[in-house]
Design goal:
homodimer; seven-stranded mixed beta sheet; Ubiquitin-like (UB roll); 12 helices; 408 residues; L-amino peptidase D-ALA esterase/amidase
Chain lengths: 408, 408
């Protein structure tokens, strides 16, 4: 497809990412589908690294995801590799898909000296077409020979598909006098919904942590970050978040280390928000916050019902303060609601309460608020203490343009 | 909003509807919101009529719906009236909404001599703005004085909002030598999803049937007709289906009368399909049929996941045979699926089977099929005997145009 303009919601630029001791990166142009750009990235982790991951729950997930899930539990001290291609998702490619994963893992193992069991793969792009893995394998020698500690920014570019900007984030914290770094990259702009739709995320840290502790933190934080964003309610077959801790800082981190967990939360939330900000066709970034629901689960149901409603999302695109559609989305969600106890806010503006429009509300106030690029929709159910936050974008002509023509 | 072009999927014309003995209709220009067109319809039913209904399950449903639900169970032989306005839904209008319903019912009761308990109201249009019911009440004398047996076609026009064509359907069957007629009208083109989004349907018959039998048939048939269509997954706060049987034919119909139920099913399915064919911005009419699911409920979950997927709907708009997105929608639905047992068909063309594209399938065949206006997507899960059918339309630029600008 033609080059897309950079999202109006993109950050000013790609951040400076710190070097993470113990991991090196390389990228190459394998020509899997795209021409004239990098489309493969390889990360090689030193001995002693541990890897955790979270994955799509799709029942039709790709061979790559199934393979990563099988390997993720095994603990090994011998190092590891992550190889990712863009342009072809290797999803719904039958036994050929399994064979492609095996072939890539064996080729990486052969060049790096790692066991194939410690090679993790991801593929992203069109579904249902055979992955020409031989094009990837033809580049593995070149990749292993050009590994660099500073290659993470280039890796962020190589994994892009319909993304309009590369996504990165980092944090540094002090752990007992030693500095621990976290740096991550992500891709994804369509097929984004809770349960990690068409999203690939790779996060690296030099913290020293055991695999179960890392996995536990990552699983917790995925729920309130990547599983709390939605662009179009469509969940992909390939979503993968892999996190590697090299231990090179020699700073010990445990599961209840709130400073580390807080920093990791920040990196994950930043990357998740960047994915929404690159939502296909997005012109508005929207936070939906539910309070006062009967339960947290009900709050999440209401939040997603609002965030996924085409009528809410098109109203936002039109800068129309059409709060009636929010009432509609609350009503249809299936979670508990009482029409006469609802309070709806746009930012700090109380729009509706006591079952009707608020007396202090004016359409001008609402229309003026909706012109902002970043919006907050708040709904209090007045029923209990359940809360949830999700993030989404608007639904525009550009979404239709991108997706009615994706394969052409 | 500006006049919309008639949907390319519209029927050739409005059907000739039979006179239903025992019911008369009138329409008027009340200026609730629209100018220069009719926006109120009144139907008055003779003594002996029974009324059944099905309604939105929204937790924030309108005062009108709540009032109809309360009244529907009461059995009375004294006749009844149905009054409907377009332009304002009277939903989320607090206590003022309840007062409007009461005021309209009392005005109709006063002019017709019916008890207010036998007056049923519906309102459709924008949410959250006070219904100027005094404009409706100012027309009730005129309406009662112009009632006509042949006014059903005009009534279909008066209840339209963003509809681009009026919707009607009818059937006639022989019951023990007597002819029984069924005639119905519907409106609705956005906010359409199972649980009867922004849809109003009124069906009349001269059959003689008791209220519980009529209600039982209507509830059954709603599930496989109006609750099996979706335009945008958004459910309205006002959906109402009312059916009245006048008994004027003196032909007795009971709940297990398969001929009558079959004819009613036909009328309801025709009207439901017309609603989809008027889906906002629709250019394709799509039947999704699931077979081989573990259960009927699973089949329905898969069918709706496909029918509501923005990525599937935009691919259809682009005439792109992107069956990978169907695999995605099956995978994300949450219902049971086995990647390697799926079979996907476009019409009679087998597209994918055994976990991959079918050997006999060519992209040209798929692309050629997708150019048709009426499409069938078939998925066999290979797991059991569960089946479901739902109907939907594509997602186009015109949907965005209509909905990003609805209130302006």
């Amino acid at each position: 497809m033609a080059d897309l303009p950079v999202s109006p919601l993109a950050p000013a630029g790609f951040p400076d990412l710190p070097v993470i001791d113990g991991v090196r990166f390389a990228t190459a142009e394998a020509g899997v589908k795209y021409q004239g750009r990098t489309d493969v990235m390889l990360a090689v982790l030193d001995a002693g690294s541990v890897i955790a991951g979270t994955f799509t729950k799709s029942a039709t997930r790709s061979s790559n995801v199934l393979d990563c899930q099988r390997k993720i539990g095994s603990h090994s001290e011998c190092g590891a590799a992550i190889i990712v291609n863009s342009g072809n998702s290797n999803a719904f490619t039958g036994r050929a898909g399994d064979q492609s994963v095996r072939a890539i893992c064996e080729a990486v193992a052969s060049e790096t000296g790692l066991p194939a069991e410690r090679v993790f793969t991801s593929s992203t792009g069109v579904i249902g077409e055979r992955l020409p893995h031989e094009r990837i394998n033809a580049k593995i020698a070149e990749l292993t020979q050009t590994l660099s500690e500073t290659g993470l920014a280039d890796a962020a570019k190589a994994i892009m598909t319909t993304d309009t900007f590369a996504k990165g984030s980092s944090a540094a914290i002090d752990v007992n006098g030693r500095t621990v770094h976290i740096a991550g990259i992500a891709k994804g702009s369509g097929m984004i919904a809770p349960d990690m739709a068409t999203m690939l995320v790779y996060i690296f840290t030099d913290a020293k942590i055991n695999q179960p502790d890392l996995q536990s933190m990552l699983s917790d934080l995925t729920e309130v970050t990547f599983n709390s964003i939605t662009v179009d309610s469509d969940t992909s077959t390939s979503d993968t978040l892999l996190m590697a801790a090299t231990g090179a800082s020699n700073a010990d981190v445990v599961v209840d280390s709130s400073a580390f967990k807080g920093a990791l939360h920040g990196v994950m939330l930043d990357l998740a928000h960047q994915v929404v900000r690159d939502g296909e066709g997005a012109t508005k970034f929207v936070e939906v916050e539910i309070t006062g629901a009967a339960t947290d689960a009900d709050a999440r149901t209401h939040a997603l019902s609002i965030a996924n409603s085409p009528l809410v999302k098109t109203a936002i695109a039109g800068e129309d303060p059409n709060w009636g559609r929010i009432v509609m989305a609350i009503g249809k969600s299936g979670a508990a609601a009482d029409r006469d106890l609802l309070t709806i806010r746009f930012g700090d503006i109380v729009v509706a309460e006591n079952g009707w429009v608020a007396q202090s509300y004016t359409e001008d106030d609402g229309a003026s608020y909706m012109k902002q690029q970043d919006l907050k929709i708040g709904v209090d159910l007045g029923l209990g203490t359940g809360t949830a936050k999700v993030w989404t974008c608007d639904l525009t002509h550009q979404y239709i343009t991108i997706n009615a023509d994706y394969r052409s």
